[in-house]
Amino acid sequence: QVQLVESGGGLVQAGGSLRLSCVASGRIFSFNAMGWYRQAPGKQRELVAVITSGGTTNYADSVKGRFTISRENPKNTVWLQMNSLRLEDTAVYYCNAARVLAATVVNYWGQGTQVTVSS
Question: In terms of C-beta density within 10 A (0-12 exposed, 13-18 middle, 19 or more buried), how is residue 54 classed?
Answer without folding.
Answer: exposed
